[in-house]
Amino acid sequence: xxxxxxxxxxxxxxxxxxxxxxxxxxxxxxxxxxxxxxxxxxxxxxxxxxxxxxxxxxxxxxxxxxxxxxxxxxxxxxxxxxxxxxxxxxxxxxxxxxxxxxxxxxxxx
Amino acid sequence: xxxxxxxxxxxxxxxxxxxxxxxxxxxxxxxxxxxxxxxxxxxxxxxxxxxxxxxxxxxxxxxxxxxxxxxxxxxxxxxxxxxxxxxxxxxxxxxxxxxxxxxxxxxxxxxxx
Lengths: 109, 113
Fold this sequence. Notes:
heterodimer; A: mainly beta; 4-stranded antiparallel beta sheet; globular; B: mainly beta; 11 strands
């Protein structure tokens, strides 16, 4: 994955769907795409991970196009508690992950 | 209750002193990591260890040291050589599966007085 690029910040209103896109042009053939959520003064929390097409779990969906050069994290019907920083992870080598500055999502009432 | 523990949560030290941050995991993970986070910034990798008695420098290893004598423990020492040590320090671990999902501890906030 190497370096990733994502928007610095986003605002949304409660109840809306939020989509955060990450660009990862140098993705390796065997790399998975991973997203984390971080609240202030806490460790990042794993949200979702995928390799291709679409992955859905109880908190989010992850859309990955066929060329895998980008991915979109989709948060359905956000609430105030979803206000956090969201990271799309890059990877350099087997064990070295790269966290960018992330996307600061602010959910408004 | 499986997870990663870091202690202490808050740590204060005087300039010129070394200080050791604790990280313990009971997830039976092979790999462990230390990250540093500054206000408004992402995480930067300090050191990582793939297996006991082995560790590698990350992107900002200068002024830090680690040891990995046991699988479940990966302490980080912030030495007096670290010029700007005030930061939030995060420890993580991951298994050896094909998909290396990292699990993070709650972090230690270090303040140099």
